Amino acid sequence: MSGQHRNVKRSRTIQDFFKRNNDESSTSMPSGPSLSPPICEEQPPSQPQRIEDENVRVESHQEVNTNSLERDPGLRPQIDTYPPNERDNVRRAYILLGPCQPQLKEFPSHLEGKQKRRFVGSWYKQYHWLEYSVHKDKVFCFPCFLFDIDHLHKAFTVEGFRSWRRVGGKECVFLIHIGNINSPHHFAMQKWMDLKNPSHHIDRVVQTPQEVAKNRLRLTTTIEAIRYLANQGMAFRGDDESYDSFNRGNFIELVKAFARMNVNIEKVVLQSAPLNAQYISNKIQKEILSIYSTKVRKRIRDEIGEDGKFCILVDEALDDSKKEQMAIIIRFVGCDGHIQERFFDIVSVHDTNSPTLKSDICKVLGKHNLLVSNMRGQGYDGASNMRGEWSGLQALFLKDCPYAYYIHCFAHRLQLALNGAAKEVGLVWRFFSMLNNIVNFVGASAKPTIVRLEVEFKQAHQ
């Protein structure tokens, strides 16, 4: 049994296929790490020697030898040519070296148009991320080289830039490359700074729970202020919301009131908050209001029910900005059997013809899964585009749902009846004309109003 046991071969593992022999390792093992990018990572598996070399390369690049890095940005390999497990080491090594900014006595010039132009060394101070390639006489972006793997700006990462006449002025190509706060260059700069200051990362981790608690309290204060003002139908903005203003508007004044009543809130809102996380901008207010409106519409939709029948009441009018606004009201029978009317949405329309109005109404209904086939009534004014028998809005909806009967708005009908009666009967016409003049006279200034109140007071105490 012992002899048979000795003849049993040890099962081989996958590592056995990628190990060097002892005699090979002594002669072919490299003396130090190499940062040269792989020639090709997709070699066929039928070449065992290539697989062995690749394995040694991965194991030997745990520490980056900065002396072997190519400094010239026009000659160095791109970050994405290195294996993924080496890229951070390469980035750290380049960050330790910093941008390649050679100081030459005279940079080479070349003809652009009718003038010879050359790189200017003072640009290094103005754009500290700038790199210059002596080999190509072109400039590159250091942080974008490190982190812009997708090469969104090839002119500053792969190809290089050399059109010197485009540097400076309003259309400076360097400023265009920098872009706004959401540009790829800005994100690359942020990653560069984060990786450049590793000690700062620990502070962030330690402060994260505290910052999260502060942000939540700050955002909760904003949400509650918006909720109160929206509930009361009050304006948010003020005429002057600057720091020195005595009245900064309802929203900010309400946040200040919350801060006066709670010390913890006072420590995290307004001037006590970071400039980039105050949560009081108009954009934040509108976003939270939009969330509230979505929740309200969802609640109304739940009240109607999945197959609930409903009616629509629609009217449009010009607002102060001279835009046509269309209000949509939903009328339905609630679960308790009582008729409910809910303001549902207001839509800005570019045209008041019936097809446009129908299209906008259907978009609102379809967005909330309210089927036109479940419509059981329409209520509009008597304008031709609304009540037209053949091409009016009510006729268009009747084609889709024959049960959506049209009812002329009672308030509009009463107004039309009063106008018609007043025009036909002279006494009624003179009565309403005199009443209109009295109202205009009394309400035109403060003195007639004071006299009227004094007369009413004397009559009440007689």
From TrEMBL:
Residues 50-62 have a biased composition (Basic and acidic residues). Residues 1-84 are annotated as: Disordered. Signal peptide: none annotated. This is Zinc finger MYM-type protein 1-like. SMART domains: ZnF_TTF. Residues 115-204 form the TTF-type domain. Residues 25-38 have a biased composition (Low complexity). Residues 1-12 have a biased composition (Basic residues). The lineage of its organism: Eukaryota, Viridiplantae, Streptophyta, Embryophyta, Tracheophyta.
